[in-house]
Amino acid sequence: MRVSGENLWPGELVTWSAGEVSAHADRLAAVYRAAFAAYGETDDDTAAFRHRSLPTHTGRDDFRCVVALDGDDLVGFGYGYQGAPGQYWTDRVADLAPPAVVRGWLGGHFEVVELAVLPECQGRGLGGALHDALLAGLPHPAALLSTWQYDTPARRLYLRRGWQPLAELPDATLMGTRLPLTGTARPA
Ligand SMILES: CC(C)(COP(=O)(O)OP(=O)(O)OC[C@H]1O[C@@H](n2cnc3c(N)ncnc32)[C@H](O)[C@@H]1OP(=O)(O)O)[C@@H](O)C(=O)NCCC(=O)NCCS
């Protein structure tokens, strides 16, 4: 399905169903590998993404994946789903975040799992456009994610778009934003 709406990147943003994601899992893994290489992610990490994370995540409630296409080339993607107890990430946050954060943010949340853009396509607003399309019109009260605890383009993107750091977990910052998004700051 073509995603309507403005973005600064001139290519095409498309929503892929769970079936389409499964069919194109190798292409998504290739983008993942290239995007995360700078962060020390290994071939084993890419294999885990391809063979464990994706097949598990596509089956979750409210799974949504938005991809960026440049002609036939897949150049970026973002995906998430509704987080729920019994899932690794939600349970980990419930265990490690302060009780007030857990009470105020967990439950019915949309979990942003991955956002990735090929290095050669970064810095042109594509990540921001994928982010906006991924969260547009969701019925969930809030979205949550975890990201690196140091300054990265991803962390800056989230802060620029109004995400709040909610808690420092042992190896990541938990961030949240209420939905629907308001006052999204687009890159200059
Ligand atoms: C995070 C990520 C998806 C962002 O993708 P992107 O396409 O570069 O995102 P944007 O172009 O929207 O924003 C990136 C930068 O480009 C700038 N930018 C965007 N459009 C621009 C334009 N038209 N002119 C100049 N600069 C622009 C933004 O201001 C931003 O600058 P900053 O990082 O200094 O704040 C990408 O860096 C990535 O794949 N990283 C590796 C994977 C990752 O970290 N994923 C998130 C895990 S939590």
TrEMBL record:
CDD domains: NAT_SF
Molecular function per GO: acyltransferase activity, transferring groups other than amino-acyl groups
InterPro entries listed in its UniProt record: Acyl_CoA_acyltransferase (IPR016181), GNAT_dom (IPR000182)
Pfam families (alphabetical): Acetyltransf_1
Domain N-acetyltransferase stretches: 13-180
Domain of life per record: Bacteria
Family matches, as Gene3D superfamilies: 3.40.630.30
Name listed for the protein in its UniProt record: N-acetyltransferase domain-containing protein
UniProt organism field: Actinocatenispora thailandica
